[in-house]
Write a structure and sequence with these properties.
With 331 residues, the chain is α+β, with helices and mostly antiparallel strands. It has one domain. The protein is 31% helix and 26% strand. It is built from 7 helices and 14 strands. Strands 2, 3, 6, 7, 8, 9, 10 and 11 form an 8-stranded mixed β-sheet that branches. Strand 4 and strand 5 form a beta hairpin. Helix 1 runs parallel beside helix 7 and helix 2 packs across helix 7. The radius of gyration is 22 Å and the shape is globular.
C-alpha cells in the first residue's frame, strides 16, 4: 500500500476522523462495482457528419494515439454555521491550491501505469504530456493552450462558480505537467469542441482525454465526492463525405463522458493541529448583530494521503467508457 506524506495547512483544532478511507471504500465495491455504477453520456451523430455528436461507426477502431491532456481537482470547500449562536458565525473550510496540485499529482502517479496497460490491451496508447510533447515548440503550445469558448459556456461556468461559492470556498488545481480544462462542460459548445480538434491536429493525437476529480474539505477530512472522464476527438466522418449546412459541422466532437457521483472515500484525514491563522470578515462591529464570517486556512499539519483506491475507481470508469465507444464503433 502506498502512502504519500503531505504538509497540510490548518486553521483550527480538529480531532482525527474515523471515516471510511478511500482504499477501504474502493476495495468494498471493487472495479466491477464502479464499472456498473458509472454513467456514460454520449451524443450520437449521423452519417452526414453534422451536429455536436460523432458518428463513431465511421472509425475503424478505437483511436490509436490518445493524449491525456487535462487532470485537475476541484475542491468545493465547506460552509457551516450555527444559527443559534450570537451573530450567526459562519466557518468556511477549503483545501489550499498547492495541496490540490499535490493530490492531483499523486493521483496521476497512482493510476497512469494501470490505464496505459488497459489501452494497450485494446490496441491503443494512452499518452501523457511527457510522451507526446516532442519539441520546445510543442511544449510552448501546450503550456499556453486556451480553448476558445462560446458565450453560453462562459455564462454557465460563471454561474456555476458563483453557486459553488455559496456553499464553500472552492479551488481548482491541476496535476503538475497537465492542463486544467473543464472538458466535461465542452460537449455542446462548438467553439470548445473545435478547440479539442485543434489540439489533436497540432500535437499529432487521434483523440484527447480529460479527468476531473471533485472533493469536499471540512475541518476533519478531504473526501472524494465525484469524478468524470471525458474523451474528445476529430469528427470521424471524412470531410469529403459530410453533408449538410456548414454551420452545423463540428470539427471536434465528444466521443463520450463517464461520470460517478456520490462517492464516499476519504483522501485525507486531519489530525489535531495548531491554530495558526484565521481571517475575519465582519460587517459592522462584533456586537452589532451582523453576520460574523470566519474563513479558515490549513497550515503545517502532517498527515497522509492514501490513494490506493483511485486505481480501482478509475479503471472501472475508464473500462465502461471505452467499452461504450468500441460498441458504437462496431455498429
Amino acid at each position: 500500500m502506498k502512502y504519500f506524506r503531505l504538509i497540510i495547512p490548518i486553521a483550527i483544532l480538529v480531532s482525527f476522523a474515523q471515516a471510511v478511507t478511500l482504499e477501504d471504500y474502493a476495495s468494498g465495491r471493487g472495479e466491477n462495482g464502479f464499472y456498473s455504477a458509472t454513467k456514460v453520456d454520449m451524443v450520437k451523430g449521423t452519417k452526414k457528419g453534422e451536429g455536436p455528436g460523432p458518428y463513431l461507426p465511421a472509425l475503424d477502431s478505437l483511436p490509436k494515439r490518445i493524449g491525456l491532456i487535462s487532470v485537475y481537482l476541484k475542491d468545493l470547500g465547506n460552509r457551516s454555521s450555527k444559527a443559534y449562536l450570537p451573530h450567526n458565525p459562519t466557518k468556511i473550510s477549503s483545501l489550499p491550491k498547492s495541496n490540490g496540485n499535490a493530490l492531483a499529482g499523486f493521483y496521476t502517479d497512482q493510476v497512469i501505469p494501470a490505464l496505459k496497460k488497459e489501452f494497450e490491451a485494446r490496441g491503443s496508447s494512452l499518452l501523457t504530456p511527457a510522451d507526446f510533447l516532442d519539441s520546445p515548440q510543442d511544449i510552448a503550445y501546450y503550456d499556453s493552450f486556451e480553448p476558445e469558448l462560446g458565450a453560453m459556456i462562459k455564462a454557465g461556468m460563471k454561474w456555476h462558480a458563483k453557486t459553488l461559492s455559496l456553499s464553500g470556498s472552492p479551488i481548482a488545481a491541476n496535476a503538475p505537467g497537465y492542463q486544467m480544462l473543464p472538458m466535461d462542460l465542452f460537449a455542446n459548445d462548438k467553439k470548445a469542441a473545435n478547440s479539442m480538434n485543434a489540439i489533436c491536429e497540432r500535437l499529432d493525437l487521434d483523440a484527447v482525454i480529460g479527468i476531473h476529480l471533485e472533493t469536499r474539505t471540512t475541518d476533519k477530512e478531504t473526501a472524494l465526492v465525484q469524478m468524470s472522464i471525458t474523451m474528445f476527438g476529430p469528427n470521424p466522418v471524412p470531410e469529403s463525405q459530410r453533408k449538410g449546412m456548414a454551420f452545423l459541422m463540428y470539427e471536434g466532437q465528444p466521443y463520450g463522458k463517464a461520470s460517478l457521483r456520490n462517492l464516499k472515500g476519504d483522501l485525507l484525514q486531519y489530525k489535531r493541529g495548531q491554530k495558526l491563522k484565521t481571517e475575519h470578515d465582519v460587517t459592522g462591529n462584533a456586537n452589532s448583530g451582523f453576520t460574523h464570517t470566519t474563513t479558515t486556512y490549513y497550515e503545517k499539519i502532517t498527515t497522509y494521503a492514501s490513494l490506493e483506491g483511485m486505481e480501482t475507481i478509475t479503471l472501472g470508469m475508464m473500462k465502461k467508457l471505452l467499452d461504450r465507444i468500441e460498441n458504437e464503433i462496431r455498429k
